[in-house]
Description:
By secondary structure, this protein is α/β, with parallel strands linked by helices. It contains 13 helices and 9 strands. The protein has one domain (3-356): Alpha-Beta Barrel (TIM Barrel). 47% of the residues lie in helices and 11% in strands. The chain binds coproporphyrinogen III (CP3). Coproporphyrinogen III binds next to strand 3. Its main location: cytoplasm. It catalyses: uroporphyrinogen III + 4 H(+) = coproporphyrinogen III + 4 CO2; uroporphyrinogen I + 4 H(+) = coproporphyrinogen I + 4 CO2.
Amino acid sequence: MTVTYCAPKEESHPCVYLPHVPVWCMRQAGRYLTEFREFRAGKDFFETCQSPEACCELTLQPLRRFGFDAAIIFSDILVIPQALGMDVQMVAGKGPTFPEPLKEPEDLQRLTAKVDVGKELGYVFKAITLTRHKIEGKVPLIGFSGAPWTLMSYMIEGGGSNTHSKAKRWLYRHPEASHMLLTMLTDVIVEYLLGQVAAGAQALQVFESHAGILGPVHFNEYSLPYLRDIARRVKDELKEAGQDVPMIVFAKDAHYAVEDLSQSHYDVVGLDWTIDPQSARERTGGKVSLQGNMDPCALYAPKERISDIVKKMLEGFGTRGYIANLGHGVYPDMDPENVGAFVEAVHQHSKQMIKKI
Length: 357
Ligand code: CP3
């Protein structure tokens, strides 16, 4: 299924001038919102992901409440293992669960060798097109994908894990099969991201959420080359069509890799809170824009304190080449008012800083 977005004439260009630093939050559509919980009640998670209307509604909910400067399409990174033929369920209180994870290299034969991305994931493309229309050009719409290593680790672990020992066992014991799986995933991800752009996504974020468990040596072998390949192939393909789309890489807990990530064809490097803004700037040398990185738990602080923390973060990053965000997603027990206070603080402090320049 090909889904193509055609911008209406009246839609403004997404790269409009903003008088403040742009801000959005990972998991801005989530259980911390009462309207999200009400809408999701009694519905299966992945069935919700498969309904373009539901995804559109959930994507728009946080925009109705807060002054976010971007929307991220409601979906999940685990739709790719599903497209490869794996069963994935979202179990309440437990999280994502694969009843039959990959155990040994022979299990790779269970995966669909040539995925028809349009057929298997066309519902995400439809959700993006519908949502892009509904946003009416007010803010850009971000599409996303999980990165190969993060998806591989879920497919082998069968769910969340502290040690990721089953997946890391493959890296030590089955390096060839690991590269095979990562390559398979990369091919699907590239097509999936290109499909999202054709459907109307105006920026793309690649989530390497399990980067931290790798360490620098394995990161350089099993994550970075694939992250690079994804950005290069997506960018090259778009360039041929005279297009470009900003790409963000978020490799959680991979602070050792920020220099490399800043030279990996991405336009923006997303940062978790374990790295100091100023040192991230120094280490990336102004080559890329940065995104992040307030500790999500700072949202438990009183509003005035949130404002002070935001001010310091803005001073560390500066207002140019910077997108404010949290260092990871909003948690379900967070007070929506504090999320609003975070957004307001970014706008207010950055406006003042920009005026002084
Ligand atoms: O608002 C947004 O950020 C857009 C939607 C989005 C979701 N998942 C919706 C979701 C995005 C970008 C993701 C990405 C995702 N999914 C990642 C990468 C980001 C990260 O957190 O590091 C990962 C690792 C997943 C896998 C996944 N899906 C997990 C670990 C969970 C949480 C399970 C739990 O019970 O806490 C999910 C479920 C999920 N995905 C929820 C949401 C809003 C919560 C469950 C629900 O709505 O019922």
